[in-house]
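Look at one such:
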Amino acid sequence: MERWFNVGKIVNTHGIRGEVRVISRTDFPEKRYKKGNKLYIFRERDNEPIEVTVKSHRVHKSFDLLSFEGYDSINEVEPFKGAMLKVPESQLGELDEGEYYFHEIIGCTVVTEGGETIGAVTEILTPGANDVWVVRREDGSDVLIPYIEEVVIHVDPEQKTIVIRPMEGLLA
């Protein structure tokens, strides 16, 4: 059975020429939304995804704006509002060493070098220079872990574990 991975959510239309506003959920928007790439639209009421081909991509404010081949008006893309954009596992490419897909990191248990369990990664933020991993502690509070060499010592996606060396004040 094919596994699917979210790359974005269509939250609205943009203009009248068939563009959609997407909140991106992908690590690599420049690759995923490249002209000619295939994406799959999953709507709640449909049994099968709708295959679309990216016609254009641009960034506007905090959204990725996409248009698809064969969908040239607002009326044609209006039904896509609220739908998820996904790709099949077969479209996931090989990554360089030290790079991971979000789905490989989310759910990993974070421990310190000394063996203290911090919690599990629940979300990944991409605010700028480096990713930030949101780790939920057992008490329900969150701690933010920057994905930088000085802090993240070892990542083992197969064992779902991450070893960190906390900077002063990081876990306070």
